[in-house]
Design brief:
- By secondary structure, this protein is an alpha/beta fold.
- The chain folds into three domains: 83-243, Substrate Binding Domain Of Dnak, Chain:A, Domain 2, CATH 1.20.1270; 251-398, Rossmann fold (3-Layer(aba) Sandwich), CATH 3.40.50.2030; 422-645, Rossmann fold (3-Layer(aba) Sandwich).
- Residues 1-5 have low confidence and may be disordered.
- The chain is globular and about 65 Å long.
- It has 27 helices and 15 strands.
- The strands form four sheets. A six-stranded parallel sheet has the order 12-11-10-13-14-15, with helices on both faces. The protein has a five-stranded parallel sheet with strand order 5-4-6-7-8, sandwiched between helices.
- The chain binds iron/sulfur cluster and Broken Fe4S4 cluster.
- Residues 270, 305-306, 322-323, 344, 454-455, 484-485, 525-526, 563, 565-566 line the site of Broken Fe4S4 cluster.
């Protein structure tokens, strides 16, 4: 921890690290306390310029080989690999890792579901039987007159193919618009099971296998699609069936949700089962009484990162912040216990927790941290783990040492806009319909739809790009759908409320005011990006906006991305037909054939394309220009021009 002194000259002022006031306050406190956070480590770690451009390869011991990013075709690797081979292989492995993370998560949720419907688990039961039937119907499983468990067993067996199927198309291909599926078949990128695709990508990126960047890019798309329309979609759909489909729920976000006079327990990670069980433990009479006996007023359960976003959507559980704030929140001194499961769990949490006496526990056998206590979560005895975490938290509360400083920032927002709820919100309680959304896009009140998602990270000012990008999009009548850490950035900025419509353009504001919805809809965690795909498929199915996903006036962005999961998500959106813009950095050398393929060539094949930009306003206008291009191709650009010019003309254009 002593390194902080040596770093002083390199450190950015806290206000330049983040736009989140609470996180800035904690960065300053940590610096006073001599505790190093991710922001400080980033200042001390200059990114390798060759790695940042993906101009190096270490796939065999004849290397590692470094090419020159400034003159990418001047050299080849020892084996003769060109820059296009090297960077497409590197990109492929990022997609494989990201897809593996989502699909392993989805498979774990499906396995739990299997235990429930086979009657082997007494701790969980199906919460949403309507969705059970809906999902089963959507992939051709007979539901008429059958018991929930019988439908469930068939659904489990069928969806397991999402992971294990060696040949043929995975079950959720039945949800893909026909024209999009035709393109995928023509391109040879319809996914088989994720295990098959990930295994093949790892083989093809071994030295001396696939050395044609175009051929490899097909496998990159296929693997990413096995995540978006496969592993992630199963995680979302089965999560909804098991734990309930989200509906709009009010929740508080930011570090001000911590309570000095209560036992604060944070759950951070991605899998909903640990968090659901923690909710049972922290609200049990025995635990609440134990907390009171220790002098606390109660137990305050709080989420962080993506499982936090899911719990916020399903239960209104308060949320303390996104990925860049997971260490900073511990600096408050008020976190009595933090239980983590998988993904985006910084190893640095261990040292920070030690400094402030927070009880930190890993719970998943896939994710242990050297020196951090492990209490394993078992689905056949979930409370065994979560009760123990709560007991340790109560004990830490009783023995709290050191000053507590809780920032008083918190914002109230509405979360939990599932694909289904958007249909009910627009169509009415009994008439789930996307017709009003399509009509308002066709008549130009809504210009288009943008998915703004992804991480926060220390190489760019936390939350800044997310918030400014989304504000510019809604100002230009683009309805924004959000997931993951990005959703938390906007929630902290206080914009996930219907009143944010005053920042929207006149057309979008009018729709929001009529329906009573915010112009920015929070849809959940990283795996819930699949909700954006299903919403897009509903838009195509509803009609009037083309026949393929690539026809829709939509765009996507992850302006502060950092994880390989984000690259997998970006690639499945691109392969699905969406223009997707990333910020901060892009892991590719400029002026190469591979870059041209990702940024232009894929669109020419009927898919989407990648974009990159580091300025939020410029990024918004790249997305808007793409949306306008699609409106023009659909022949609905005139409607929008008249909306902007004249209210009477706009009324004449109403489709309803
Ligand atoms: Fe170098 Fe080729 Fe080995 Fe990569 S695979 S390290 S480019 S020799
Ligand atoms: S947690 S992958 S930092 S969104 Fe899903 Fe946030 Fe990115 Fe992790």
């Amino acid at each position: 921890m002593g390194e902080i002194k040596d770093l002083k000259s390199k450190l950015l002022p806290a206000r330049d690290c983040t736009t989140c006031e609470a996180t800035a306050q904690m960065i300053n406190k940590a610096r006073r306390d001599g505790v190093e956070l991710v922001f400080d480590r980033a200042a001390n770690m200059k990114p390798c310029p060759i790695g940042a451009e993906s101009a190096c390869c270490k796939h065999c011991s004849m290397g590692p080989c470094r090419l020159n990013a400034k003159d990418p075709y001047a050299k080849v690797g020892v084996c003769g690999a060109t820059i296009d081979t090297i960077q497409s292989r590197n990109f492929a492995r990022m997609v494989a890792t990201g897809s593996a993370s989502h699909t392993d998560h989805g498979m774990a949720v499906l396995q739990l579901f299997g235990e429930v419907v086979k009657g082997h688990s007494k701790d969980y039961e199906i919460q949403d039987t309507r969705k059970l039937v809906q999902v089963a119907d959507s992939i051709g499983i007979e539901t008429e007159g059958r018991s929930n468990n019988d439908i469930g067993v068939d659904l489990y067996n069928e969806l397991m193919k999402t992971y294990t199927q060696v040949e043929g198309e995975i079950p959720f291909m039945k949800r893909v618009p026909e024209k999009t599926l035709e393109t995928w078949r023509k391109e040879g990128i319809v996914p088989r099971g994720a295990m098959r695709e990930i295994m093949e990508i790892m083989n093809r990126t071994h030295i001396g296998v696939d050395q044609d960047y175009e051929n490899l890019t097909k496998q990159i798309s296929r693997t990413a699609l096995s995540d978006g329309w496969g592993g992630s979609m199963v995680a979302t759909e089965i999560g909804d069936i098991l734990f309930g489909t989200p509906r709009p729920t009010v929740a508080e976000v930011n570090m001000g949700v911590l309570k000095e006079d209560e036992v604060n327990v944070i759950v951070h990670g991605h899998e909903p089962n640990l968090f659901e069980s923690m909710l049972v433990s922290t609200t049990s009479k025995a635990m609440v009484e134990a907390a009171k006996a220790a002098g606390a007023k109660g137990i305050n359960l709080v989420g962080m990162c993506c499982s936090g976003a899911e719990m916020m959507s399903r239960h209104g559980i308060p949320h303390a912040g996104n990925f860049m704030s997971t260490e900073a929140v511990i600096v408050t001194g008020a976190v009595d216990a933090m239980a983590v499961d998988i993904q985006c769990i910084k190893q640095g949490l261990g040292k920070v927790a030690e400094c402030y006496g927070t009880e930190l526990f890993t719970t998943n056998p896939r994710c242990r941290i050297e020196g951090v206590k492990h209490i394993e979560f078992h689905e056949d005895d979930p409370l065994g783990c979560t009760d123990e975490v709560v007991i340790k938290a109560i004990s830490r509360f009783k023995n709290r040492k050191g000053a507590i400083e809780i920032p008083n920032n918190k914002s109230v927002g509405i979360h939990g806009f599932s694909t289904e709820y958007i249909g009910y919100m627009l169509g009415g309680t009994f008439r789930d319909s996307y017709v009003p959304l399509n009509e308002n896009i066709i008549n130009g009140r809504i210009r288009g739809v943008a998915g703004v998602v992804g991480c926060t990270q220390p190489r760019t000012k936390q939350d800044y790009m997310h918030v400014e990008l989304v504000k510019e999009l809604i100002r230009n009548d683009v309805l924004v759908l959000q997931t993951g850490c990005s959703q938390i950035s906007l929630a902290k900025a206080g914009l996930l409320i219907p009143e944010a419509a005053h920042l929207a353009g006149a057309g979008l504001a009018e729709v929001c005011e009529t329906v009573g919805m915010p112009p920015i809809l929070g849809m959940g965690s990283c795996v819930d990006n699949s909700r954006i795909l299903t919403a897009a498929a509903r838009m195509v199915e509803t009609g009037g906006l083309g026949h393929a996903l690539a026809d829709l006036p939509v765009a996507g962005a992850a302006p502060e991305w950092m994880s390989e999961k984000a690259i997998a998500i970006g690639q499945y959106f691109v392969a699905s037909g969406v223009f997707t813009v990333f910020g901060t950095t892009f892991p590719i050398t400029d002026n190469t054939k591979f870059k041209k393929l990702l940024f232009e060539g894929l669109e020419e094949k009927g898919l989407g394309k990648w974009g990159f930009c580091n300025d939020p306003i410029e990024m918004a206008h790249m997305m808007i220009a793409h949306i306008d291009k699609k409106r023009k191709q659909l022949g609905i650009d005139k409607a929008r021009e008249r909306v902007l010019m004249d209210m009477a003309d706009r009324q004449k254009l109403d489709v309803a």
